[in-house]
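Private note to self, pasted from the team thread so I don't lose it. Backbone tokens:
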């Protein structure tokens, strides 16, 4: 796939599927190379004092992203399957931008500035999942077991320099960030009919560990070079362990009234830490999350349902960072 606008961009992908007897293998890969350009011109007039400002900006960014995924699945028997999934994606970006501005008071020149900025970024994501599935079609019994590891990392660099006619000293900074996120989990789900037709029991649980770091280094522009600023640099770390158990029971009465009641228990403990001030905080709590469904079918085309869900919202881990 090729696209030509002000710049050229390409995208390609490949899919391979192989199956023999009880073994199945799939491979998927893709690659994109996109170039984006942006330009903007502004003229602002202020009636209060007849001031004018002119701002011109241009930027060109390139984004390259290869990725692939693979799934291997082995049918151990007509009821047992074992498989492994791995996914990897990588993206790299480079963006250059220039901004120029001029200010006038009436027809008299006041000042001007030129700002150059460059951002570099690289993002990697690796996920893997080992799974086992037991499925008895006759008895409608299902067991799912999943073990997985996810890793993602991001390296970012942002530097800018501003030269102004009103100042002999250019202003600027260089900011470096390197985020790493790690997750390890085990998940088990089981369901089967209970008693007469129309009743179903489902239960399971999950154990999840996360270990994330957010280091950031800040450099001030000083005498034509960048100097490390300890007061604006920090290393933030977040760890948590989430354990959960759940159970759902469904039953249909008179072939028209469908009901489901469920309860989920969650326990989480987490630690947040930052180097600046040598601050660390650890907390844990337990939560019960019930849910309920009642649904009545008056006819094949008309039914009425009512649901109740108790959910919990957790902030994204970086929102804990006070820095």
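Design output:
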């Amino acid at each position: 796939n090729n696209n030509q606008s002000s710049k050229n961009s390409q995208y390609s992908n490949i899919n391979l599927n192989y199956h023999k007897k009880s073994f199945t293998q799939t491979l998927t890969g893709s690659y994109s190379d996109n170039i984006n350009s942006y330009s903007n011109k502004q003229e602002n007039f202020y009636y209060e004092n007849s001031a004018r400002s002119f701002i011109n900006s241009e930027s060109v960014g390139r984004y390259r992203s290869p990725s692939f995924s693979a799934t291997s699945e082995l049918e151990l028997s007509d009821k047992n399957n074992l498989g492994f999934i791995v996914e990897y994606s990588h993206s790299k970006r480079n963006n250059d931008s220039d901004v120029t501005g001029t200010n006038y008071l009436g027809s008299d020149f006041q000042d001007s500035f030129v700002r150059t900025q460059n951002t570099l970024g690289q993002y990697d994501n690796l996920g893997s999942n080992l799974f086992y599935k037991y499925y008895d079609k006759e008895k409608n019994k299902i067991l799912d077991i999943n073990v997985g590891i996810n890793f993602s990392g991001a390296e970012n660099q942002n530097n800018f320099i501003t030269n102004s006619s009103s100042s002999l000293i250019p202003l600027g900074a260089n900011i470096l960030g390197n985020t790493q996120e790690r997750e390890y989990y085990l998940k088990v789900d089981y369901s089967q009919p209970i008693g007469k037709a129309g009743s179903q029991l489902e239960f399971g649980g999950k154990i999840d560990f996360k270990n994330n770091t957010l280091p950031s280094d800040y450099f001030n522009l000083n005498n034509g070079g960048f100097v490390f600023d300890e007061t604006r640099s920090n290393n933030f770390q977040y760890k948590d362990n989430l354990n959960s158990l759940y159970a759902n029971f469904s039953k249909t009465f008179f072939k028209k009234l469908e009901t489901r009641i469920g309860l989920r228990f969650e326990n989480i403990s987490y630690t947040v830490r930052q180097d600046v001030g040598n601050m660390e905080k650890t907390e844990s709590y337990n939560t019960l999350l019930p849910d309920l469904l009642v649904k009545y079918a008056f006819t094949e085309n008309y039914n009425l349902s009512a649901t109740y869900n108790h959910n919990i919202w957790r902030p994204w881990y970086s929102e804990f960072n006070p820095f």
